[in-house]
């Protein structure tokens, strides 16, 4: 199991476009992926779940990945957060 603390740094936070990108990236992996923020834990492969986090810029998020391809899945999520969901220049 991999756990990592992340921070939402893109200007608009986890809005619809960023959430769709996250879910799309995770669709390629078999591992279970959860995000926890503001006292809620959600399935990161669920658009509705991620949207319910209402995680704006600066929100700390805990990533937990467990499964056969957990390293690659965690790396993909971390990279997406690091790239600010390709939204900010």
Automatic annotation (TrEMBL):
Localization per record? Cytoplasm
Domain of life (superkingdom)? Bacteria
Where in the numbering of this chain does the HPr domain appear? 1-88
Q: Which UniProt keywords apply?
A: Cytoplasm, Phosphotransferase system
Question: What transmembrane ranges does the database entry give?
Answer: none
One family from Pfam that matches here is PTS-HPr
Family listed: Belongs to the HPr family.
PANTHER family linked to this entry: PHOSPHOCARRIER PROTEIN HPR, PHOSPHOCARRIER PROTEIN NPR
**Name of the protein described by the UniProt record:** Phosphocarrier protein
Organism from which the protein derives = Lysobacter niastensis
